[in-house]
Amino acid sequence: MVNWTIDVIMVPVLATLLAPCVGTIVPAWRRGVFTGGHLFSLGLALLVWRLAPLQTVVDMRAGPLNVQFELGVTNDTGLGLVLVALLFLVISTFSRGYVQGARHGAAFLALLLLGQAAVTLVLEANDLFALYSGLLVFSIVLTSLIGLDFAAVGERAALRVFATLEVPSTLALVGFWLIATRAGTASLVRLSLAPPVWSEPGAMISFVPIMVALLARSGIFPVQNWAVVGCRATTAPTAIVVAGVALPLGALVLVRLIGVILPASGPWLTLLALLGASTAVVAGASALQERSALGWLGNLAVGQIGLVIVGFAVYSSGSRAAGQLGLIGAILGVVLSGMGVGIAVRAAQHPRVAGLAQQPMPWLGRVALGLGLFALVPLPPFPGFTARWLILVTLLQNPAPWAALVAVLDVLGTLLLAAAVWKVILDPAEALNGEFAAESATYRAPPVSLVQSSGTARHGAKSDWEIPSVLAGSLIVTGILSITQPLWLPLPPAELGGWAGYAALVLLGLAVGGGVAWHTTVTAPAWLNWLGWAISWGNRRLRLGQLCDPYVVIGGSLMAAGQLSAGILNQTLGRLARSR
Amino acid sequence: MPTDSLLAAPGSASPLAGLIGPIIPGFFSVDELGLAFLVCMAILAALLFLCTPATTSFFRHLVLLFFFFTGVFGLLTAVNVVTFFGCWELCSLFAWAIGEAAGGSDTSDEAVIPFQAAGALGSFAMFFGLALLVVNRHSLLLGPAQPNHLTAVVPLLLLGVILKTYGILSEEWNRRDSHGFSVAGATLAGAGVLAIGIYPFFRLFGQVLAGIPGWREPIEWVAAFLAILAALAALGEVDFRRALAYGAFSQFWLLILVYSVGSQMAILGAMIGAAADALAFTGLFLAISAAEEATAQVLFRRVGGLAQRLPLTATLFVVSAVSIVGLPPLGSFLADGFLSLAATGSSWLPIIWMIVGGLTMAYLVRLFAALFLGELRGPVKAERRWSVVLAGGGVVGTLALLATLATSLLALLEPVTRSFPG
């Protein structure tokens, strides 16, 4: 019997397994299997969306054992599945230029398919353990994608990403077990109907690790650096997966668990809103001083997700809509910018931010970069603009002092993130002050070691950079979806000052965007450079980045404690064991 | 969720129950606890025997493994203090020999009589502990002890288990000149710890001392301390074999801690967890042994990037590692279910569980990143694919099937947990 909810997960996995077999027989068809797998998954996702709602209980009953995993597809989930399938199809197609001729190209594409299966499992998961399983598999995929370049920097980044995501998650898994045991169920639906698990005595033991794990997954301050480090260390396609898929997925899971195993009201939501807004401020400041293009993308994604979390944490109907819109806007903006930045990095043959927008690159790359950057600023009519507007309206209507503080941080974060975007658009190549020339002279490999480390050896460096037509189609579709957002997701016009006001803002946004696009050789305003320099100087002097980084602080302390413990065991029991 | 229905249904009997009964009355007999361990040992033995053709000295390993598992069979079926101690020593002796065989040592530290201070002290402690037990019970048969004059028995038996377990684990990180593929680590950390450390503890502290008051709390403290210390040591260690051995030692103490709680759920969780961990550590040690063979290195700073050349080994490592963490449907998932039931009534067990779980994930991540990611450092031999596929397939398949197998194990163990006094 056909079970669509499971099939939509299994198809990418089967394609992953099928590709090496086909590749062994007919090597030329291997890539077709990957593309076919993505296309078939997309078709299946569309079918599942049409058939929704669907519900499946995977029963691990074996004799007296009865362990159940619940998977379900609602109309919203179905739409999510389609978007995920589309997103991975676009990323996989975009990756073609990176993996052609690369020794690990097939592994890279296979990992993307596995990643799609894991994300699908997370979206369909209706119980805590299926959710955990999907997230763990996705983390393994992410780590492998980052570490696949087999460079020292990739190893460190992969270690950091996996440790930051999964060590707290292991603690959270214990919390899941405790909750499931107390409530008698791990089903998200039944947990949401049961008495609140967080109000029970001793619930803090479960609640705190789950909270930390979810904040880490969403890249919320102070656990946000893994995303930036992961993006910085890797290739553009992987950076897109980290910034455009992993971070939004973390936010989605966090939001989904609010009201289920996390309180839907009270001081912790206020704290979450403050942390979200602070994340935007910190990420904006970091993006301004960031020198790596992909690191800059990671910072922007972190900031966007911070603002999205504010929308969900404020917890009114308007702000929730803002959160959803912001999430869609962030995904669109980050993925488009990521592709544009990838193409620009490739064209510029250097990984720095400065001067990227001025690089000669294919018109499609320029369109992608432009659309993505304007979506991230955010200019109207992109969804991000509407989302910020709604959040601000909700915050200003709230008389509580914390709301004013969140509003201030929200605006500051938005301004800093916008400044970081403008800096990239306006900053000319000369801003590198001669570094560019020096780097170009000695330049051997772009941050695309996947190609260079092995592909060069076997096939020679690729000078051409072709963008497949599928990418063009998806760019156009995404652009249209963004621009027509008020039509497919109408919002209360009153909160936006009426349709006339909104239309005026859209026109203004288009004018500003168009003006900037026509004058890309304009020198960056001095204050933008000064701002970046000041933040960088302050960070260097005060070491705020390191002091506020739990990976450095806790990881370093644990390693020191580990060395001490190893010394104790080696000098006591170990000495005894060595005596012969 | 399922935890409310995890227990075996009343009246359900294991299909293996027919194997229970005496072999040599008064000396060797198969009971439920022994049979559950025998099933696990049979699986581990099959896996390890399949791996022996890939080792540097096939016949040597084959013979030593044969004698080791013969000793294990004796130990698991022993009902008499003398046969129990004799088989325990025999197992330890052959575990020591397997460790030495991996070292390829025809060298100076090989002697006529094997001696290792930790193991020898462990033997003495166990010997005196069992002797005092015989005095207490006025019988050579293993059975519930009387609550008189037992002050020294508990620390002596515990010391015996600690020293012997650490002793056999330390044999894995012997200095080796050849760095060939070996089943030593897999045998010692999987079947070895299960037979020489966990089973004696379960048997002695479950069947014999369960009704004696006062020992649980001190052992819980010791177990919690050592579980955290060993997990931290695994994180800070510079030799990857030693790091994993400390990891096995940490999991061993976590299981002891859970078992010491004494509830039915805790005992079942510890037993299923012991089987799952033994399989997972067998897989992990096979993977790092393949890594050691390929690189001829054992220090973290001298290895890296092995996933390029050893992709199947890296996959085996990942699957075994996620099994330890408790990813469904792999083995430890069910153990975690029981553990959560045991932890519900405790204020400190969830915290220790979280700390050890977090540290376990941390050192496994560090091991994976250091061994398999990053730059290749030095020459690396090609992967022996069929051996790894065979061993990996066996480990992974068994881990995945453990959920099904656990049904029979549960049906078998459920009466054991009820029969333990206290």
Structure, described:
The complex is a heterodimer of chains A (580) and B (422). With 580 residues, chain A is mainly α. Chain A has helices spanning 4-25, 30-51, 75-94, 96-99, 105-124, 128-147, 152-183, 188-193, 204-218, 225-232, 236-257, 267-289, 293-314, 317-348, 363-376, 383-397, 401-426, 435-442, 449-452, 455-459, 469-483, 485-488, 498-518, 526-542, 544-547, 550-571, 573-578, and strands at residues 54-59, 68-73. Chain A has a two-stranded antiparallel ribbon with strand order 1-2. In chain A, helix 5 (105-124) packs antiparallel against helix 6 (128-147), helix 12 packs across helix 24 and helix 13 (293-314) packs across helix 16 (383-397). The longest helix of chain A has 32 residues, at 152-183. Chain B has helices at 32-51, 58-77, 81-103, 117-137, 153-171, 184-208, 216-236, 240-261, 264-295, 311-325, 332-344, 349-372, 385-419, and strands spanning 21-24, 28-30. The two termini of chain B are 29 Å apart. In chain B, a hairpin with a 3-residue loop joins strand 1 (21-24) and strand 2. Chain B has 13 helices and 2 strands, in the order E-E-H-H-H-H-H-H-H-H-H-H-H-H-H. The longest helix of chain B is centred in the last third of the chain and has 35 residues, at 385-419. Chain B has a two-stranded antiparallel ribbon with strand order 1-2. By secondary structure, chain B is mostly helical.
